[in-house]
Amino acid sequence: MPEFELFGSPGPRGLPPLTEYLDIFDVDMMRRPDESNKMQHHTAFYSSDQLVVRRGQEFQVNITFNRPYDPARDKIAVEFVIGSSPQYSKGTYIPVFPTKQRKGSWEGRITNKSDKTVTMGITPTANCIDHSRDLYILFNPWVADDAVFLDDEPEREECVMSEMGLIFHGSSDDVSERNWNYGQFNYGILDACLYIMDRAEMPITDRGDPIKISRKASAMLNSRDDEGVLVGSWSGDYTYGVAPTSWTGSTDILLGYASSKMPVCYAQCWVYAAVFNTFLRCLGIPSRVVTNFYSAHDNDGNLKTDIILDDNGRIDRNLTRDSIWNYHCWNECFMSRPDLPPGFGGWQVVDATPQETSDGMYRCGPASVKAIKHGQICFPFDAAFVFAEVNSDVVFYSRSRDGTMEPVKVNRTHVGRMVLTKTPGEMTRRDITDQYKFSEGR
Questions:
Q1: Which of 269, 294, 340, 427 would be a feasible disulfide site paired with 329, CB 3.0-4.6 Å?
Q2: What's the DSSP call for residue 424?
Q3: Is residue 145 part of a domain?
Q4: What are phi and psi of 436, to 5 degrees?
Q5: Based on the domain organization, do 243 and 126 belong to the same domain?
Q6: For the CA atoms of 317, 323, 325, 329, what is the dihedral angle to 10 degrees?
Q7: Where do the H-state alpha helices sit in 31-86?
Q8: Which of 146, 322, 351, 382 is labelled catalytic?
Q9: Residue 86: in which H helix or E strand, if any?
């Protein structure tokens, strides 16, 4: 006997018409340089086909549906996914809702509706991370909540947006200068900088922290431990590469490393500092190259430069381990330091030239410039080493026949005689020695 189903009243049989569902036809990220996103986020100069924005600041996305959006019955969310295994708890899966009733870590709102197209404003948090290649989210020195906020427009324009620089060398009484093209906006440079972090196997969750990024990069910019970007050479023989003095910009170095996956030959201190500057500025971290004249290298960490003399009063090169360079270049980058007591944020020294190991790797910093000036050498990272570079006493020893050492002379003003960087907005030098040491130590 056939079954019979009794309906109380007529009703629909089958799926509702497709026009009832809200479906996405198109998403316009508004990524062109002349559109509002890149203009408002100071990223119009990046040679990238993708959208480049800065965290902590709203950007716009146009979403076109199959029918007009009705907030009374339609619920939408924009999902941002980072990495292959995104997790909400790790900040790698971020749903953004356009209503105040349901909030996520990123803010969203409808800023305009026109027929079937909705413009949604999205504001990433000021400490977010980004590891995608479809949307680049950089540090934002224009936003007060960002760790790299720099409340000085001329300094910010110079240390984030300027592509040309001056690097000083020579001696304190005969200063020379090199022009350098940082090229942080050139095509492929942003991807090359992200590749450096990938090559370092830097956890995605650490990439929103300028302290961790600058410390990791100070190791990755040299090749001593980890097949990093640059091979250093002071031998004078540059047969298998480019002489350090021949480089005039960072672009060929970074693109060469990203394409070959091999360290680039060769570098000395100013090349390390210049390429590091490109890396930091490209990611949105304010940075500048600094030159310290008569820069000490404290080999044993005793905060002195020990010079051993032979019987004729000349330096005994076999026994003397410490040294003083005519000049040495490093970087300063600007950031808050929540890991230190209040007052020690601001400019931080980072150095990619491989001099001494720090936590088992050839790297240096970030070390607070204010901590260095005030002798707070126990603060992380490597403040004692940088203090000795700029402010150590030079102690001369005579060596007796029984091997004992006796100090015969102390020079307290030779090391760190002058510290220079480029003047914001000008192709001239700026003396910042007083930021590293008090006048009585000069």
A1: 269
A2: T
A3: no
A4: -105, -25
A5: no
A6: 140
A7: 36-40
A8: 351
A9: none
Number of domains in the chain: 2
- Across all residues in the chain, what is the average pLDDT? 92
Q: Which of 328, 333, 364, 382 is catalytic?
A: 328
Phi, psi of 120 (to 5 degrees): -110, 130
pTM for the model stands at: 0.92
pLDDT digits (tens, 9 = 90+) for 25-45: 999 999 999 999 999 999 999
Average pLDDT over residues 242-260: 99
How confident is the model over 79-89, as a mean pLDDT?
84
If asked whether residues 121 and 172 sit together in one domain, one would say no
The amino acid sitting at 292 is N
Of 225, 199, 224, 202, which Cα lies nearest the Cα of 213?
202
Asked whether residue 257 falls in the same domain as residue 134, the answer is no
Q: Which of 265, 269, 282, 333 is catalytic?
A: 269
Q: Are 47 and 176 part of one and the same domain?
A: no
Return d(Cα 37, Cα 35) in angstroms, integer.
6
DSSP state string for 92-130:
SEEEE-SSSSS--SSEEEEEEEETTEEEEEEE--TT---
117 and 157 housed in the same domain: no
Catalytic residue check, 351: yes
Domain extent for 118? 18-138
CATH number of the domain to which 97 belongs:
2.60.40.10
Query: Does 68 reside within a domain?
Result: yes
Q: What is the pLDDT of residue 66?
A: 93
Q: Where are the alpha helices (DSSP H) in 104-187?
A: 153-156
User: Is 143 inside any structural domain?
Assistant: no
Neighbouring CB atoms inside 10 A of 145's CB total 12
Pair (313, 178) in one structural domain: yes
Contacts of 235 (CB under 8 A, 6+ apart): none
Q: Residue 44 burial (CB < 10 Å; 0-12/13-18/19+)? A: middle
Residue that is last in its domain, among 138, 169, 191: 138
Verify whether residue 431 is a known catalytic residue.
no
Q: Are residues 273 and 340 in the same domain?
A: yes
Say whether 269 is catalytic: yes
Q: 330 near 351, Cβ under 8 Å?
A: yes
